[in-house]
Amino acid sequence: MGALRRLRNLWREAALASEFDDEIAFHFEQRIAANLGRGLTREEAEREARRHFGSVVRAREGMREARVAGWVPAFGRDMRVALRALRRRPLLAALAVLTLSLGIGANAAVVAFIDGTFWQPLPYPEADRLVAVVDTFQIGPPRTSPTVPELLDLRGAAQSFESLGFVDTRDFQIGGGIEPARVVGARTEVSLLHALRVRPQLGRLFTAADAMPGAAPVALLADTLWRSNFGGDRAIVGRHIMLNGFATEVVGVLPADFQFDFIVQGPDPVHAYVPFPMVPVYTERSQPFVNVRRVIAVARLKPGVSPQAADVEAQTIARRIATAHPEVYRQGSDRRDAGLGMRVETLQETLFGRNRQTIQVMVTAVVLLLLIACVNMGQFLLARALDRQAELSVRSALGAGRGRLARQLAAESFVLGGVAAVCGLTLGVGLIALLRVQIAASAPFFAARIGVNGTVVFVTLGLAAVVTLLCNAMPIVRLTRWLPLQSLATREAQPRTRVRHALIASQVAVTITLLGAAGLLVHSLSRLASGDRGYVAEGVQTIRLRAPLRVTGADVGRLYRQYLERLRAVQDIGDVAMASTYLPLFPGTSFTVVGAAADAATMAVQQSTYAIVSPDYFATLHIPLRAGRVFTDADDTTVPSTAVINEELANRYFAGRSPIGLQIRAGEGPRAAVMTVVGVVGNIRPAMQLEPIPQVYVSYLQQAEPNMVLLARSRSGALPLAAMKRAVWSVQPDQPLFGVRSLTDVVTAMTAEPRQSLAVLLGSVAALAVIVSAAGLFTLVTYLAARRRREIALRRVVGAGRLDVVRALSVPTFRWTCAGLVGGVVGASVATGILRTMYAGVAAPAPMLLAGICLCYAAIAAMALCAPALATWRSDPGAILRAE
Fold first, then answer.
1. CB neighbours of 360 closer than 8 A, spacing ≥ 6?
2. CA gap 746, 710 in Å, rounded
3. Buried/exposed 275-288: b ≥16 CB within 10 Å, e otherwise
4. What is the DSSP letter of 65?
């Protein structure tokens, strides 16, 4: 009979009984009829039939076993017995559920993180065929964006791609509102949207003619901009709007579910799209922008072509490009080949691959936490099995097989595992929400992909089932070693706990490792946020701006100089300046000292930050002048290029000489120039570094940069924003001002990502590990106290005091706890060494920090160990001895 029918028969008790009776009566009558045919009398035939048929009750039971899934009610009975057994020790059962649910909840959060990163496909048709193209170099940046000429050559020669396009982002200005507005815009090569298989909800996509030189400006609007700024007017197609100061025709509106915000490094979504201008300044290698790398290349593979095959083809084409244009890829005074390569990888890997390090740390942390929870759950189940050893031995002596006993123990573990899975999933929902909050500020596109879905629930419940089976292995293995008669005849006065103590020591070591790693990250963040940073951020407000596109070249600097002149006249503003970046970040610009030997290998090492600033930048941030002078408004395009460097660069590369008057060559692409050093200023410690790095500053009047940050120090602490806007608009009425933030908030945000998120997550896991391991210590000593209550009662009768009882129950476990502390210190040192290789600005292991963590944990462990020992002391020894 099929399994489904046997299950269905569970709910057919009355009908099934009637069927059994009818079938038994039928077979009985058939036997009687056969006997009558043999010549027996009716009485003899019935008597022979009854004798042949045997017990009717047994027959009915045999038929029931064949037709009903009897394991279901048996499992239900096991579950009821398990619940009654767990109610006898509710505190220990609650602790076991708590520890396991914490481990399951933390793993649920990590599963959601991995699901949003690598498991969920990107929101495009046939997303598995979308790939990205990146450049690699043997000398210089190991991984960077390709140039437009390289991508055009690759598209013309490659056979693996169905289509290949590229995109970059710009600040766009939209006029016609209450005040000039800024939005993030994308300049897309016409093939890109076709590669993504986008269908506009209104109008059309770009064509090749839209990107040709001299073509009329056109734009595509995102659904959010269309609805918010234009009221969702379906007649918007064909209308002209003011975009970057030019009348631009709207040719289409993209669908509401189209997501392309991953190309933006920040919280602002892309609102407008324009064609990437295919003009010679971008497309030809003879132009100054030949080595400008800021586009993202996306391609769609042909059906049947793998990313690996496309990668091999791209590598071959890259070698051809380097051979055909050697002058572009040679660096240093010896003109050594930089070793150009091209890599093709899935778009998902390009977007989220940078999270692999964070995922590895998180997975390691939560797996360790889950192992601690497994140890605690296994210890609890083993203690339960040992307490019931006599009961199970009686059952075995009465005929219960080892499988039946194992099923009863498994029922108890699955009750605990089921409750822990539900609690853990509930906790996981909260942790996932915390994770999304941590990520949303810097990566909203990524944060939107993280959540609770069917995959997360399925994997979490599956993990809970596997963990429950593993936890149940400890009592099952012990069960197979029991001898029923010996178990009934003997009584273990001193339980053997060496293995369980070793497990306790291991979980303490893991907990200290996690606490040490999290503490180090928090310690590093506090050091980054405090101490002498080389500048004063307090009281400085920042505003971002971009010059209108019609203002180009040296006119950009002159326009910004007029802004500064008007802003200095605003009441309540002290110092005011402009810079291409808030603060110097990581070194990324190669430089050489003119006259010093520098081959390509040396160039790869000589890296500095590069900032375009106005003269008052140093005064605004209170950066001290060490030698020479800072810029003046006379440092413009009519005089030779000048540079200001920091102390670190001067001390490291000028070998004790004064750098004033000497020259350096710095900058990339069209900004590369030979500059005379006119001043040395103090070091600025970058937001994500603990040590000073080389820094180069150039004048905003000598190198045009439309995207700038306005920094203003207020005399009263409050920025007169309205007056500042009026001052700027008195020079340029359509100049958007956006991104108003204090420099303190900017520094906090720079420091926060990604290590603050990692510190919060790792710290949360470490805190959970403390709770879990402390619960494990409490559970173990409670178990020992229960097993040794008769011994403790006898000790008290003969005069043992409270301290003696606490010492007998707690000291052995505390010794193993101390051994775990030592192992944890070693593990924390190793973990922090690994974190230092993964993240910049992580401090070296701090002995005092580790010592403080160990002392705090030892105090928590002592409380967890002494609580059950003191509870045992308060019990009546006479009552215990009489009961025993």
1. none
2. 13
3. bbbbeeebbebebe
4. H
Alpha carbon distance 457, 428 (integer Å): 10
- Report the domain count for the chain: 4
Cis peptide before 615 (omega within 30 of 0): no
Q: Tell me if 610 is assigned to some domain.
A: yes
114 found inside a domain: no
> Could you tell me the two tokens for 511?
């907990």
Coil, strand, or helix at residue 637? Answer: coil
Name the pTM for this structure: 0.66
State how far the Cα of 423 lies from the Cα of 164, in Å rounded to an integer: 48
Instruction: Report in angstroms the alpha-carbon separations of 510 from 502, 513, 586, 830, 831.
Output: 12, 5, 34, 12, 11
For residue 512, what are the contacts with CB-CB under 8 A and spacing of at least 6?
820, 821, 823, 824, 825, 827, 828, 850, 853, 854, 857
Dump pLDDT digits (tens) for 508-548: 888 888 888 877 777 776 766 666 788 988 889 899 888 87
Q: Which one, of 97, 78, 265, 259, lies nearest residue 171 by Cα?
A: 265
Q: Are residues 802 and 871 in the same domain?
A: yes
Q: Give per-residue pLDDT as tens, 147-158.
A: 899 999 999 999
Q: Is residue 777 part of a domain?
A: yes
SS3 294: coil
- The span from the CA of 307 to the CA of 130, in Å, is 9
Pick the last residue of a domain from 53, 69, 85. Answer: 69
- For residues 861 and 817, the answer to whether their CB atoms sit within 8 Å is yes
* Residue 185: inside a domain: yes
Token digits for 521? 């990250």
Instruction: Provide the residue count of the chain.
Output: 884
- In the structure encoding, which two tokens stand for residue 747, read together? 């520094």
Residue with tokens 């605003």: 570
What tokens appear for 225 in the block? Answer: 């901009």
Q: Are 212 and 276 in contact (CB under 8 A)?
A: no
* Same domain flag for 512 and 576: no
* Cβ atoms of 201 and 223 closer than 8 Å: yes
**90-114 helix and 402-440 helix, angle to the nearest 10 degrees:** 50
Pairing mode, strands 625-628 and 673-681: antiparallel
Q: Containing domain of residue 569, as a range? A: 549-733
Residue 704's CB: how many other CB atoms inside 10 A?
21
DSSP element (H, E) containing 589: strand 589-593
The alpha helices in 569-641, defined as continuous H runs, are: 600-605, 617-620
| Amino acid in the structure at residue 65 | E
Whether 276 and 166 have beta carbons less than 8 Å apart is answered as yes
- Can you tell me the distance from the alpha carbon of 834 to that of 361, in angstroms, rounded to the nearest whole number? 10
Tens digits of residue pLDDT in 567-576? 988 888 889 9
The span from the CA of 48 to the CA of 59, in Å, is: 17
| Rounded Cα–Cα distance for residues 350 and 485 (Å) | 65
**Does residue 167 sit in the same domain as residue 316?**
yes
Phi-psi region of 371 (alpha: psi -120 to 50; beta: other; left: phi over 0): alpha
717 and 573 fall within a common domain = yes
Q: Which two tokens stand for residue 537?
A: 């951020």
Instruction: Encode pLDDT of 109-135 as tens digits.
Output: 888 888 887 888 888 888 889 999 998
